[in-house]
Amino acid sequence: MQREELLQEWCTGVRIAHVAHEKAAARYDAVGRLLGVIVVVLSTIVGTAIFSTLARSPSTALKVVTGVLSTAAAAVAGVQALLGYPQRAADHREAAMRYGTLRRHIEQLQAFPPGDIASVAKAMENVAQQWDDVDAAVRPVPQPIWDQATAHVRQSQERASQARAVHDARPATA
User: Fold this and answer.
1) pTM over the 0.85 mark
2) How many Å apart are CA 94 and CA 119, to the nearest integer?
3) What is the dihedral of CA 13, 18, 24, 29, to 10 degrees?
4) Tens digit of pLDDT per residue, the chain (174 long)?
5) Which among 154, 149, 32, 161 has a CA at the least distance from the CA of 99?
6) CA 115 from centre of chain
7) Rounded CA gap, 84 and 87, in Å?
8) Of 157, 161, 110, 120, which Cα lies nearest the Cα of 4?
9) Is the four-CA dihedral 71, 72, 78, 81 of positive or negative sign?
C-alpha cells in the first residue's frame, strides 16, 4: 500500500471516530436533558399535589398517586446520577476534539509531506502513536452510533468524489 493510500485510510478512520464521538456527545446531552426534564416535571407534580392538599384531607388515591410520582421522580433522578450522561457527553466532546486535531495533523501530512523517506516514516510513526494514545484514553462509542458515523463519512466522501468528477469534467474556460 502506498503512503498516500494509507494516509487516506487513516484520515477516514480518524474522521469516523471524530464524527462518532460528536454524535455520542449529542446523544448523551439529549438523554441527560430528557431525564432532567422528567425529574423536574414529576417533582413539580408531587409538590403541587402536596401543597394543594394541605388545606384539606387528601383521599387515599391521591396519597398513592403522589407517593408513586415521588418515588418515580427519585428513581429517575437516581438513574440520571448513576448513568452520568453529562460526564459521558463531556468525555465524548473531548474525544471528538482530540480526533479532530489528529485528523488535521494527517491532512497536513497529506498536503505537505516531508521531503525524505526517513522524515515521512517518522511523521507517520508519530501519527500512529498519537492515534493509539487517543484510542486508549477515550470511552468507546456505542456500535449504532459508530455505524451512523461511518455511513455519514462514507456518504460525504462519495458526494465529494462526485463533485470532483463533475468539476474535472468541465471544459476549461479562458
Assistant:
1) no
2) 30
3) 180
4) 788 899 999 999 999 999 999 999 999 999 999 988 888 888 888 777 777 776 677 777 777 887 888 888 888 888 888 888 999 999 999 999 999 999 999 999 999 888 888 898 899 999 999 999 999 999 999 999 999 999 999 999 999 888 888 877 777 665
5) 149
6) 37
7) 5
8) 110
9) negative
Q: Which residues of 78-109 are buried (b: 16+ CB within 10 A; e: fewer)?
A: eebeeeebbebbebbbebbebbbebbebbeeb
| Cα 22 versus chain centre, distance | 3
CB within 8 A of 94, min separation 6: which ones?
138
Alpha carbon 57 to chain centroid, angstroms: 50
